[in-house]
Protein backbone atom coordinates (compact mmCIF):
# COMPACT_ATOMS: atom_id res chain seq x y z
CA UNK A 1 0.00 0.00 0.00
CA UNK A 2 2.82 2.36 0.86
CA UNK A 3 4.69 1.81 -2.40
CA UNK A 4 1.50 1.98 -4.44
CA UNK A 5 0.69 5.33 -2.82
CA UNK A 6 3.87 6.89 -4.23
CA UNK A 7 3.23 8.66 -7.50
CA UNK A 8 6.53 7.62 -9.05
CA UNK A 9 6.23 3.90 -8.24
CA UNK A 10 4.03 1.00 -9.26
CA UNK A 11 3.74 -2.42 -7.64
CA UNK A 12 3.73 -4.87 -10.55
CA UNK A 13 3.67 -8.12 -8.53
CA UNK A 14 3.77 -9.60 -5.03
CA UNK A 15 5.37 -12.95 -4.18
CA UNK A 16 4.83 -15.22 -1.21
CA UNK A 17 7.90 -17.41 -1.75
CA UNK A 18 11.41 -16.99 -3.06
CA UNK A 19 10.63 -19.10 -6.09
CA UNK A 20 7.66 -16.91 -6.93
CA UNK A 21 9.85 -13.82 -6.54
CA UNK A 22 12.26 -15.12 -9.20
CA UNK A 23 9.46 -16.14 -11.54
CA UNK A 24 7.62 -12.82 -11.14
CA UNK A 25 10.80 -10.82 -11.64
CA UNK A 26 11.02 -12.51 -15.03
CA UNK A 27 7.37 -12.28 -16.03
CA UNK A 28 6.52 -8.86 -14.60
CA UNK A 29 9.81 -7.25 -15.71
CA UNK A 30 10.16 -5.37 -12.44
CA UNK A 31 12.82 -2.67 -12.21
CA UNK A 32 13.42 -3.47 -8.55
CA UNK A 33 12.63 -6.35 -6.20
CA UNK A 34 12.23 -5.80 -2.44
CA UNK A 35 13.33 -9.21 -1.18
CA UNK A 36 12.76 -10.67 2.26
CA UNK A 37 15.64 -12.93 3.32
CA UNK A 38 13.48 -15.44 5.14
CA UNK A 39 10.98 -16.86 2.68
CA UNK A 40 9.46 -20.32 2.16
CA UNK A 41 10.41 -22.65 -0.70
CA UNK A 42 13.53 -20.66 -1.63
CA UNK A 43 15.19 -18.17 0.71
CA UNK A 44 15.79 -14.59 -0.35
CA UNK A 45 19.55 -15.05 -0.70
CA UNK A 46 19.24 -17.83 -3.24
CA UNK A 47 16.42 -15.98 -4.99
CA UNK A 48 18.65 -12.91 -5.21
CA UNK A 49 21.48 -15.03 -6.61
CA UNK A 50 19.21 -16.44 -9.31
CA UNK A 51 17.98 -12.99 -10.30
CA UNK A 52 21.51 -11.56 -10.39
CA UNK A 53 22.79 -14.47 -12.47
CA UNK A 54 20.01 -14.24 -15.07
CA UNK A 55 21.25 -12.27 -18.08
CA UNK A 56 17.67 -11.44 -19.03
CA UNK A 57 17.29 -9.70 -15.65
CA UNK A 58 20.54 -7.76 -15.82
CA UNK A 59 18.85 -4.44 -15.09
CA UNK A 60 16.80 -5.66 -12.13
CA UNK A 61 17.91 -4.34 -8.74
CA UNK A 62 17.38 -6.26 -5.52
CA UNK A 63 16.88 -4.58 -2.17
CA UNK A 64 16.82 -7.11 0.68
CA UNK A 65 15.04 -7.01 4.02
CA UNK A 66 16.75 -7.93 7.27
CA UNK A 67 15.90 -7.96 10.96
CA UNK A 68 19.34 -6.30 11.35
CA UNK A 69 20.36 -7.49 14.81
CA UNK A 70 19.50 -11.14 14.28
CA UNK A 71 19.96 -11.83 10.58
CA UNK A 72 23.52 -12.84 9.81
CA UNK A 73 22.83 -13.57 6.15
CA UNK A 74 22.91 -9.97 4.91
CA UNK A 75 26.49 -10.21 3.63
CA UNK A 76 25.60 -13.39 1.78
CA UNK A 77 22.77 -11.44 0.14
CA UNK A 78 25.17 -8.68 -0.89
CA UNK A 79 27.57 -11.28 -2.27
CA UNK A 80 24.66 -12.81 -4.16
CA UNK A 81 24.07 -9.54 -5.97
CA UNK A 82 21.79 -7.41 -3.79
CA UNK A 83 22.35 -3.68 -4.06
CA UNK A 84 21.61 -2.96 -0.43
CA UNK A 85 19.34 -3.77 2.45
CA UNK A 86 16.51 -2.41 4.55
CA UNK A 87 15.79 -2.90 8.22
CA UNK A 88 12.26 -4.20 8.69
CA UNK A 89 11.28 -1.40 11.08
CA UNK A 90 12.37 1.29 8.61
CA UNK A 91 10.23 4.44 8.53
CA UNK A 92 7.81 4.64 5.59
CA UNK A 93 9.46 7.70 4.05
CA UNK A 94 12.88 6.08 4.36
CA UNK A 95 11.58 2.95 2.66
CA UNK A 96 10.44 4.94 -0.35
CA UNK A 97 13.71 6.87 -0.46
CA UNK A 98 15.66 3.60 -0.29
CA UNK A 99 13.73 2.16 -3.22
CA UNK A 100 14.38 5.31 -5.25
CA UNK A 101 18.09 5.22 -4.37
CA UNK A 102 18.59 1.63 -5.50
CA UNK A 103 16.34 2.00 -8.55
CA UNK A 104 18.51 4.94 -9.66
CA UNK A 105 21.53 2.66 -9.71
CA UNK A 106 23.08 3.51 -6.36
CA UNK A 107 23.72 1.06 -3.55
CA UNK A 108 22.05 1.59 -0.23
CA UNK A 109 25.17 1.95 1.90
CA UNK A 110 24.99 4.44 4.74
CA UNK A 111 28.17 5.26 6.69
CA UNK A 112 27.03 4.00 10.08
CA UNK A 113 24.78 0.95 10.32
CA UNK A 114 25.69 -0.62 6.99
CA UNK A 115 29.43 -0.54 7.54
CA UNK A 116 29.07 -1.85 11.08
CA UNK A 117 26.81 -4.67 9.95
CA UNK A 118 29.14 -5.74 7.17
CA UNK A 119 32.16 -5.51 9.48
CA UNK A 120 30.34 -7.61 12.07
CA UNK A 121 29.39 -10.48 9.80
CA UNK A 122 32.01 -10.51 7.06
CA UNK A 123 34.60 -13.19 7.64
CA UNK A 124 37.08 -15.06 5.48
CA UNK A 125 35.10 -16.43 2.51
CA UNK A 126 34.09 -20.06 2.73
CA UNK A 127 35.60 -20.64 -0.70
CA UNK A 128 38.97 -19.37 -1.97
CA UNK A 129 37.32 -17.49 -4.83
CA UNK A 130 35.64 -14.22 -3.78
CA UNK A 131 32.60 -12.83 -5.57
CA UNK A 132 34.67 -10.07 -7.13
CA UNK A 133 38.34 -9.39 -7.70
CA UNK A 134 40.77 -8.01 -5.16
CA UNK A 135 42.40 -4.57 -5.13
CA UNK A 136 45.88 -5.71 -6.22
CA UNK A 137 45.46 -4.17 -9.68
CA UNK A 138 44.25 -0.82 -8.39
CA UNK A 139 46.28 2.37 -8.28
CA UNK A 140 46.99 3.99 -4.92
CA UNK A 141 44.28 6.58 -5.55
CA UNK A 142 41.79 3.87 -6.47
CA UNK A 143 42.62 2.01 -3.28
CA UNK A 144 41.93 5.20 -1.34
CA UNK A 145 38.60 5.61 -3.09
CA UNK A 146 37.69 1.96 -2.48
CA UNK A 147 38.47 2.36 1.22
CA UNK A 148 36.10 5.33 1.45
CA UNK A 149 33.40 3.46 -0.47
CA UNK A 150 33.72 0.65 2.07
CA UNK A 151 33.20 3.19 4.84
CA UNK A 152 29.88 4.16 3.28
CA UNK A 153 30.81 7.52 1.74
CA UNK A 154 29.00 8.70 -1.37
CA UNK A 155 30.77 10.28 -4.34
CA UNK A 156 30.43 13.83 -3.02
CA UNK A 157 31.87 12.86 0.37
CA UNK A 158 34.72 10.95 -1.29
CA UNK A 159 35.48 13.99 -3.42
CA UNK A 160 35.62 16.22 -0.35
CA UNK A 161 37.81 13.79 1.56
CA UNK A 162 40.36 13.45 -1.25
CA UNK A 163 40.20 16.96 -2.71
CA UNK A 164 38.62 15.79 -5.97
CA UNK A 165 35.65 16.92 -8.01
CA UNK A 166 32.50 14.78 -7.60
CA UNK A 167 32.77 13.80 -11.27
CA UNK A 168 36.34 12.58 -10.79
CA UNK A 169 35.29 10.60 -7.73
CA UNK A 170 32.45 9.04 -9.70
CA UNK A 171 34.86 8.15 -12.51
CA UNK A 172 37.20 6.47 -10.04
CA UNK A 173 34.35 4.43 -8.56
CA UNK A 174 33.18 3.33 -12.01
CA UNK A 175 36.71 2.38 -13.01
CA UNK A 176 37.18 0.36 -9.82
CA UNK A 177 33.93 -1.50 -10.49
CA UNK A 178 35.20 -2.38 -13.95
CA UNK A 179 38.56 -3.59 -12.68
CA UNK A 180 37.07 -5.70 -9.91
CA UNK A 181 34.11 -6.98 -11.90
CA UNK A 182 31.68 -5.57 -9.34
CA UNK A 183 28.01 -4.95 -10.13
CA UNK A 184 27.66 -2.02 -7.76
CA UNK A 185 29.01 -0.31 -4.65
CA UNK A 186 27.71 -3.05 -2.38
CA UNK A 187 30.06 -5.54 -4.01
CA UNK A 188 32.90 -3.03 -3.75
CA UNK A 189 32.37 -3.00 0.01
CA UNK A 190 32.51 -6.79 0.08
CA UNK A 191 35.71 -6.77 -2.00
CA UNK A 192 37.34 -4.23 0.30
CA UNK A 193 36.65 -6.33 3.39
CA UNK A 194 37.43 -9.70 1.84
CA UNK A 195 40.80 -8.46 0.56
CA UNK A 196 41.75 -6.99 3.93
CA UNK A 197 41.95 -3.45 2.55
CA UNK A 198 39.39 -2.52 5.18
CA UNK A 199 39.01 -4.48 8.40
CA UNK A 200 36.29 -4.53 11.06
CA UNK A 201 36.83 -1.73 13.53
CA UNK A 202 38.35 0.71 11.02
CA UNK A 203 35.05 2.16 9.77
Strand fraction: 5-15%
- Give the overall form: globular
Count of helical regions:
10
Mean pLDDT: 83
Category from helices, strands and their pairing: mainly alpha
- Walk across the major sheet and give the strand order: 1-2-3
Report the order of strands and helices.
HHEHEHEHHHHHH
Largest sheet: 3 strands, parallel
Please give the number of β-strands.
Answer: 3
> N- to C-terminal separation?
36 Å
Helix content: 40-55%
Radius of gyration: 17 Å
Low-confidence stretches: 124-130
Task: Report what the structure shows.
The protein is mainly α. The chain is 48% helix and 7% strand. The chain has ten helices and three strands; from the N terminus they run ααβαβαβαααααα. A three-stranded parallel β-sheet has the order 1-2-3, with helices on both faces. β2, α4 and β3 form a beta-alpha-beta unit. It is globular, with a radius of gyration of 17 Å. About 3% of the residues have low confidence.
Task: List descriptors.
mainly alpha, 203 residues, 10 helices, 48% helix
Outline:
The protein has 203 residues and is mostly helical. The chain has helices at residues 2-5, 18-28, 44-53, 74-80, 92-103, 113-121, 140-150, 155-162, 166-180, 185-194; strands spanning 32-36, 61-66, 84-87. Helix 3 (44-53) links the parallel strand 1 and strand 2.
